[in-house]
Amino acid sequence: MGRLCWAHFLNRGFETCGSTLPSQGLRLLMRYKSYSAAMKTLLVMDFDHTIIDDNSDTWIVKCAPEKKLPQELIDSYQKGKWNEYMGRVFKYLGDKSVEEGEIKKTMIKMPFTEGMLELINFIGKNKDLYDCIIISDSNTAFIDWILKAANVDSVFDKVFTNPAVFSRDGFLILEGFHVHECDHCPKNLCKKKVLVEFIDKQSQKGVKYSQINYIGDGENDFCPITSLKKNDVAFARKGFTLYKMLSEPPQEFVPVESSVVGWTSVFKMCP
Ligand SMILES: [Mg+2]
Ligand SMILES: [Zn+2]
């Protein structure tokens, strides 16, 4: 784990953007202009346990009869096939006539991680400096609802996640995000492929980033972090899988070049 200190960051000559920043952690996240005044910083955010302080795919169980799933459904999960499992959970809720409005009402009660709304609103006020995308293995329905309910959906340039729509007969139908060849990631989503393609597309449009800050917690955030460069920063949530993986990087991945900062909340991003 990289042992970075404030002096290290401050000595690199970056500026803060002049607005009042609520914490050191935010300031760290928001450093910019390290190379060129014309270049923006890209913030890449995971959703579950990063933007929101829980897992949307397990939170939805609150909608099930008696707030639990049948054991055989739980046991049907196979490693690397989470999306297929969630498809079966949604099918079960549809069979039990749990309606869209009920699911939405439950999902928008999910708490945001401490300080996250302040961070997102800060980004929203400084869109000339930051682009911000979400890459998540949740789904479009949950993320749309939750961001719109908090009135922050317009802050994000793009949300990359599994498509989910309600069918006419009231079933939430979930699809995989894309097809990829990465051996490390679940079949439906390799976040590295998404990130690399996004950066390529932006580059073709003439948008280049001076720095990429990746904020996440989970196992599937490790693969994209291996695409970051020396000047970039991976913010890994302490006590979660990604942080542990960065502490002892698995042999089968290419080495991580970026700096690593542990965080517990947006206000506690101390290197
Ligand atoms: Mg996560
Ligand atoms: Zn991957």
UniProtKB/TrEMBL annotation:
Report which superkingdom the organism of origin falls in. Eukaryota
Q: Which InterPro entries match?
A: HAD-like_sf, HAD_hydro_PyrdxlP_Pase-like, HAD_sf, Pase_PHOSPHO-typ
The GO terms describing molecular function are: metal ion binding; phosphatase activity
Q: Which residues cross the membrane?
A: none
Residues annotated as catalytic: 46 (nucleophile), 48 (proton donor)
Write out the residues that bind Mg(2+): 46, 48, 217
Q: Give residues annotated as binding substrate.
A: 57, 137
Q: Which UniProt keywords apply?
A: Hydrolase, Magnesium, Metal-binding
Names of the cofactor(s): Mg(2+)
The similarity comment for this entry is: Belongs to the HAD-like hydrolase superfamily. PHOSPHO family.
What is the recorded name of this protein? Phosphatase, orphan 2
